[in-house]
């Protein structure tokens, strides 16, 4: 017995469109928490309005074998619980119809699916590091281990980029129209970064193919937004009680959602706009707004919140100093860097963000958001720091955010307990900490990591601001330092 074989309670919103009509026209790489509650759910709601055949085939290139196994057991159905402050809404999602996992099947099976003629879009939520690019320049990192493997063995790739290039080669050889490559990750200019990675890699293996991709494939940018924390046992239990049965693929999220998509598809696209998405000509201003205002303050709260002893973002919001600091960071240091100020009321946007962060029903761990900081800081903080240095304006909270990251990646909290730091550059971070220890001396070599900070370490005033913030974190702890910075604003 599972959710596909029992009669679910009437309170669960269920698909009424004809699932048998769906074809795998979208192949999605990254069946993680976010995609389940965003693109797959929005596709489900679009199908509810239009019917049609836009189904999704899910692929996890790394991990998640058990999840894919469970998904198949329940006929690719799963549930999403939208948690408001006062009520929960549970939706059964019917837009997913197939799945493949290279460990359960083979990399050939993945490639064969991506090369099928009806596949019109390959979309991705593969995390920032999945693009195998230098986070600061957005160009392919040819030293990346996965890329080095795929250059040697392009027919049996491991990276998402290698899979896309090989699948496009198969389509080119077979004379089949290519697919659109659509990134849905929190990467600034995500379409351009995906394009740089794909074409950069194709050039390393087949120059003609690289030219064909350049001429025939599009990489629309997207701005994606919905807070979808990693599932917890507590949330799964809550979902079980709503469903009367377990759903191991279930996920919970906030009610808010937003999706802005550059309307640039080479092989057709669903009418996602009928389910609330917006198609626009230029997504970059929306991406910048979201990455700097929301994600920038998320990272600030994650590092300083974790160090201050807060497990969840909503816990940090119970401390007035953190709340005020996050709002000030958004309004005085991120908003002035944006080009959207005429179209969007940024004060309303910041107020909405603070309310979203406050939602106590969302148990969004500071530790989860703190992950992969080397890939996140460039688009969340570094770009804005450049803006302030150029204009000569104050950016003290951004320096505190960077100092919080430096303190956090030292792997030791304020009670001398080990922090479980997850980052693809952890070896480099550890080597620097080994050489300099938990002292202010560590700041400069960390700021000299050019894939994160570019050439910012050459700016002595920036370096001394971060050193001063770091010293205060060491001496006074995160709570007192956040309070002091918020009050000094
Ligand atoms: P998750 O941890 O649940 O899933 C991560 C997914 O990425 C998995 O499907 C995994 O197979 C894949 N993956 C990991 N490393 C990879 C690699 N090197 N190459 C290819 N695939 C790889 O995380 P979640 O919550 O689904 O988030 C994924 C991404 O979605 C985030 O990094 C972010 O860019 C974006 N996002 C997440 C939001 C959220 O609130 N969870 C909201 C907006 C965007
Ligand atoms: C978070 C984001 O994990 C993180 O780094 O900042 O996943 C955030 O929850 C989303 O971008 C919200 O749309």
From TrEMBL:
<dbReference type="Pfam" id="PF01232">
    <property type="entry name" value="Mannitol_dh"/>
</dbReference>
<keyword id="KW-0560">Oxidoreductase</keyword>
<dbReference type="InterPro" id="IPR050988">
    <property type="entry name" value="Mannitol_DH/Oxidoreductase"/>
</dbReference>
<dbReference type="InterPro" id="IPR013131">
    <property type="entry name" value="Mannitol_DH_N"/>
</dbReference>
<dbReference type="InterPro" id="IPR008927">
    <property type="entry name" value="6-PGluconate_DH-like_C_sf"/>
</dbReference>
<comment type="similarity">
    <text>Belongs to the mannitol dehydrogenase family. UxuB subfamily.</text>
</comment>
<protein>
    <submittedName>
        <fullName>Fructuronate reductase</fullName>
        <ecNumber>1.1.1.57</ecNumber>
    </submittedName>
</protein>
<keyword id="KW-0520">NAD</keyword>
<dbReference type="InterPro" id="IPR013328">
    <property type="entry name" value="6PGD_dom2"/>
</dbReference>
<dbReference type="InterPro" id="IPR000669">
    <property type="entry name" value="Mannitol_DH"/>
</dbReference>
<dbReference type="InterPro" id="IPR023027">
    <property type="entry name" value="Mannitol_DH_CS"/>
</dbReference>
<dbReference type="InterPro" id="IPR036291">
    <property type="entry name" value="NAD(P)-bd_dom_sf"/>
</dbReference>
<dbReference type="InterPro" id="IPR013118">
    <property type="entry name" value="Mannitol_DH_C"/>
</dbReference>
<feature type="domain" description="Mannitol dehydrogenase C-terminal">
    <location>
        <begin position="282"/>
        <end position="473"/>
    </location>
</feature>
<dbReference type="GO" id="GO:0019594">
    <property type="term" value="P:mannitol metabolic process"/>
</dbReference>
<dbReference type="GO" id="GO:0008866">
    <property type="term" value="F:fructuronate reductase activity"/>
</dbReference>
<dbReference type="Pfam" id="PF08125">
    <property type="entry name" value="Mannitol_dh_C"/>
</dbReference>
<feature type="domain" description="Mannitol dehydrogenase N-terminal">
    <location>
        <begin position="25"/>
        <end position="273"/>
    </location>
</feature>
């Amino acid at each position: 017995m599972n959710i596909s074989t029992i009669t679910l309670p009437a309170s669960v919103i269920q698909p009424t469109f004809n699932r048998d009509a769906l074809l795998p026209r979208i192949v999605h790489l990254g069946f993680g928490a976010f995609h389940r509650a965003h693109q797959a759910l929005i596709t489900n709601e679009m199908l509810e309005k239009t019917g049609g055949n836009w189904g999704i085939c899910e692929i996890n290139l790394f991990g998640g074998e058990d999840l894919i196994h469970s998904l198949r057991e329940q006929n690719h159905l799963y549930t999403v619980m939208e948690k408001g402050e006062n009520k929960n809404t549970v939706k059964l999602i019917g837009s997913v119809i197939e799945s493949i996992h290279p460990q359960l099947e083979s990399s050939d099976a993945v490639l064969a699916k991506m090369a099928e003629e009806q596949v019109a879009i390959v979309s991705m939520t593969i995390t920032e590091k999945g693009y195998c690019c230098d986070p600061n320049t957005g160009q392919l990192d040819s030293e990346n281990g996965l890329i080095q493997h795929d250059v040697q063995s392009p027919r049996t790739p491991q990276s998402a980029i290698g899979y896309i290039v090989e699948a496009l080669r198969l389509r080119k050889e077979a004379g089949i129209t290519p697919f659109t490559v659509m990134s849905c990750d929190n990467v600034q200019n995500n379409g351009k970064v995906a394009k740089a990675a794909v074409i950069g890699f194709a050039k390393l293996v087949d120059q003609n193919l690289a030219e064909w991709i350049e001429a025939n494939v599009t990489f629309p940018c997207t701005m994606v937004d919905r807070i979808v924390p990693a599932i917890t046992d507590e949330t799964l239990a809550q979902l079980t009680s709503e469903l009367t049965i377990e759903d191991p693929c279930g996920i919970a999220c906030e009610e808010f959602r937003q999706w802005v998509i550059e309307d640039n598809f080479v092989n057709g696209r669903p009418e996602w706009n009928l389910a609330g998405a917006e198609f626009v000509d230029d997504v970059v201003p929306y991406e910048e707004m979201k990455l700097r205002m929301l994600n920038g303050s998320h990272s600030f709260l994650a590092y300083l919140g974790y160090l201050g002893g807060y497990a969840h973002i909503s816990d940090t919001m119970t401390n007035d100093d953190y709340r005020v600091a996050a709002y000030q960071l958004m309004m005085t240091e991120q908003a002035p860097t944006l080009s959207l100020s005429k179209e969007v009321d940024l004060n309303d946007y910041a107020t909405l963000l603070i309310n979203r962060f406050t939602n106590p029903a969302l148990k969004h761990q500071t530790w989860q958001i703190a992950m992969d900081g080397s890939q996140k800081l460039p688009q969340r903080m570094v770009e804005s720091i450049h803006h302030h240095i150029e204009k000569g304006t104050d950016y003290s909270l951004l320096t505190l955010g960077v100092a919080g990251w430096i303190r956090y990646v030292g792997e030791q909290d304020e009670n001398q307990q080990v922090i479980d730091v997850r980052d693809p550059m952890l070896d480099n971070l550890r080597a620097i900490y080994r050489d300099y220890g938990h002292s202010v001396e560590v700041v400069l070599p960390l700021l000299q990591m050019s894939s994160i900070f570019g050439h910012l370490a050459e700016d002595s005033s920036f370096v001394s601001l971060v050193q001063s913030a770091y010293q205060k974190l060491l001496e006074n702890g995160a709570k007192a330092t956040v309070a002091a910075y918020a009050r000094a604003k």
